[in-house]
Each structure stands twice: as C-alpha cells, then as structure tokens.
Design brief:
This protein is α+β, with helices and mostly antiparallel strands. It contains 15 helices and 13 strands. It starts with 14 loop residues before the first helix and ends in a 24-residue tail after the last helix. Pfam families: PH, RA_2.
Length: 424
C-alpha cells in the first residue's frame, strides 16, 4: 500500500475523500431520517394529519372534494375493516368469539347517534355529504390500513381526487385514473412527483406503492403529483438497441428490425442473470456546497455507479464506488444551468427519497447532451430495478392491448425479489 505524503494535502480537491466520507455516513443518515419514538404530541398530531391527505391544506378539504361514490366507498371500506379488526384481536384481548363480544356490547347503554356496537356505519345513514365526511374522518383515524386522499393534477390544469391506501401500487392507481379520465391506456401514462424547491421530478415505477413516496413529503411541502404521458418511460424495451448497442453508430442501431429487438430483450432480460448496459463515459459532478462542476469518468454496474480515480485505469480493480442504488432514487432536473451554473441543462440528481430540501447528501451529475442523459437515466433504472422493470412493461402492454399477444415468447424471469447482479 502506498503511503500518502504531500498528496495528502490535496485531499479536499480529490473526490476520493468526499466519496469515502459519504459512504461512511449513509447508514447514519438513513437512521436519522426514520421517525423518532420520542417526538412531541404536537409533532405526532401533525404527522397523523399529514398522512391523511396529499395536495390539500387539511383533511376536511380533501374529504369535501371527494366524489360522492368515492366517499361512500371509503366509508364502507373503513366500516368493514373496523368490524374485521374487532374479530381478529389477539387472544388475550378477546372475551371469547366475535359473537360473544357482540353479546357483551349489547348490554351496554346505546351509543349516541345510534351507531352500531360493531363500529360499522350508523343505523340511520347520513343524508348529507357533510355528515358523510364527518363520519369518514372518524373512521380514518381508527383505520388500521393507512389511507391517503390525493389530488392528482392533469396536463390540462384540471385535477382528480383519489383515495389510495398503502397496499395499492402505481399500476393500480393508473388503472383508476384510466377509468376516471376515459383516456387511452397507453404504456406512456405515468404518475410523476415534482419538487419545486429542488426543481426536480421523478416518474414513479409501476410496482411502487404510491403511499410510500408520498409519505416522505413534508407537511408544508409544495410537491405535487401529476398524471402525464412520458414517451420515454419504457424506451429501454421499445428500443433496446439504444442502450445495448450504444457504442455503435446511430445509423446502425436505428435500422434494427423488430425481430432483432426481441432477441435483444430475450438476451438481456430472459436469462438467469440481468445484463446491465455497459455504459461508461465522462460526466460532470457538482462539488458539495459549490457551483463548481468537475469532469469525472463514470462506469455503470448492476450494484451502482463507479468512478475512475485520478491517475488510475478503467480496470475493475481500480474503480471506486460512487453510489449504491439501494439508498438513492434518480430524478430529472429543470433549469440547473441557471440555478447551479451547470455546464448544460441535461442534468440528473441522485438522492435518498426522504431528503426533500437542499442537502450535502444530494449528488448532481451533468451530461453533455440529451441523448447521453437518456442513456444514463434509463440505464440506471435498469440497474436499480432489474427484471421488475420488464415485468412492469409487460403488464402495461397487456393493459394497453388486452386482446393482442406479446410479440415473441416472454422471458423466463426469476423472482424479481431476488434481482441478480453482475459482478463489477
């Protein structure tokens, strides 16, 4: 091992030290972002209120904007869960069966408003929408499954109000929006979150649970969720040659036929291991706390992004890890050339989803052109989500063309929960 001497004084200019510190502190950051058990009662109340609605000033406003049939569905679902939860109490809390509990409850004085002892809907159902959302508010606070009332913005400026719970995926919410908007079921439709403060946006992946990323938003956040068409959502499957033949001239890859595309998909997604695009090249890295960007040579691997230290070669033994994908999401950016003096506006950001404001733990990278940005952003998605991404594409194609069979035999993909990695 070589000992550092004079070069040690250049550590602040050397990106190696910065990355080593970053990797050493990521676990501490992750734990510090988790909810603390000793928060004040006020903070707990604010957190509880926030988790009920997204895109509204308070829960009452969101309930009032729910359509009548959605509100009725919410109340019926909450009532059924209330009854189910009573019947599934732990043994030490039960005084016999559910029937025994009902008999015991019948001996108690009747509750006000003629509410049934089982915790279900009122005997005399509320007649006005005001009565309905008051009852829904009570049931929401008692619910065991977390629910959100979400405002989803459309590209034409209108909005739709949805009720989602923690079990629903983006794919299921998209299906709900297809029914509400009567639009086509194109594979390009996406749910997208925007963060105006950081000037970033990210399209949710279809397998994600919607409540999870929304719960990372702060209470006073100006973040919004959009229902938009993103033509590049599944470009890695509609045009796989762009990513797996990127070293060849564009004229060659653009002439590839449909059969060759299917062979590429089968080769890279149909085997026992996922093959990540062998992407590498020079990107500009923003220094922490400064509007200074320095070129670095980066290499993509299944486990993360690596860089070539100064004076080293591009061999695997010399590569140093920049980020691991488990701790980061990738975001598109807006106007970073103006905000951060980036070399171009073709930038992307890597950050932990819980970070919602400016932070030293955010990483900024800049590309020379739009095509390079397309390659990096979508190749990172392939590396991060693996075969799950391809399964999302297949489900979207099936939804868009229910009567059409998928071209070519579907790849025999192993469980997406055990995504294989290519050795770096």
């Amino acid at each position: 091992m070589m000992l550092l001497s004079v070069k040690e004084t250049e550590k602040m200019d050397d990106i190696d030290a910065m990355f080593s510190d970053l990797l050493g502190e990521m676990n501490t950051l992750s734990q510090s972002l988790m909810p603390s058990a000793d928060r004040t009662e006020v903070d707990s109340a604010l957190q509880t209120e926030r988790t009920f609605s997204i895109g509204f000033t308070d829960l009452n406003e969101s309930l009032k904007e729910l359509e009548d049939h959605d509100l009725d569905a919410l109340m019926a679902d909450l009532a059924s869960r209330s009854t189910t939860s009573e019947c599934s109490l732990p043994t030490y809390q039960q005084a016999g069966s559910c029937a025994d509990n009902e008999m015991a409850a019948s001996a108690l004085p009747p509750p006000s408003n003629s509410v049934e002892s089982s915790g279900g809907l009122q005997t005399s159902e509320p007649q006005t929408k005001s009565d309905k959302f008051k009852l829904a508010l009570e049931k929401l606070k008692e619910a065991k499954v977390r629910k959100l009332i979400v405002k989803v913005l459309m590209s034409d400026g209108s909005s739709k109000i949805l009720m989602v719970d923690e079990r629903q995926t983006v794919r299921e919410v998209l299906d709900m929006l297809f029914e509400k908007t009567h639009c086509d079921c194109s594979i390009d439709w996406s749910l997208c979150e925007t963060n105006p403060e950081l000037q970033i946006e990210r399209g949710f992946e279809d397998h994600e649970h919607v409540v999870e990323p929304l719960s990372s938003w702060t209470r006073l956040s100006e973040n919004k969720m959009y229902f938009v068409s993103r033509p590049q959502k599944y470009v890695m499957f509609t045009n796989p040659q762009v990513f797996y033949m990127w070293k060849k001239k564009k004229e060659c890859s653009s002439k590839i036929n449909e059969q060759a595309k299917q062979l590429l998909l089968q080769e890279h997604f149909g085997g026992s291991t996922l093959i990540v695009p062998d992407l590498e090249g020079t990107l500009y890295l923003k220094e922490d706390g400064k509007k200074v960007w320095k070129p670095r040579y980066f290499v993509l691997r299944a486990s993360g992004i690596y860089y070539v230290p100064k004076g080293k070669t591009k061999s695997s033994s010399d590569l140093v890890c920049f980020v691991h994908f488990e701790k980061f999401n990738i975001y598109n950016t807006k106007h970073f050339k103006l905000k951060y003096r980036a070399p171009t506006d073709f930038c992307f950001m890597l950050k932990h989803p819980c970070i919602q404001n400016e932070s030293d733990y955010i990483k900024f990278l800049c590309c020379d052109d739009e095509h390079t940005l397309l390659l990096w952003v979508n190749s990172i998605r392939i590396a991060k989500y693996g075969t799950t991404l391809y399964e999302n594409y297949q489900a979207a194609m099936k939804r868009a063309h229910p009567s059409a069979s998928h071209k070519g035999p579907p790849p025999s993909i192993e469980s997406s929960n055990s995504r294989p990695r290519k050795q770096t």
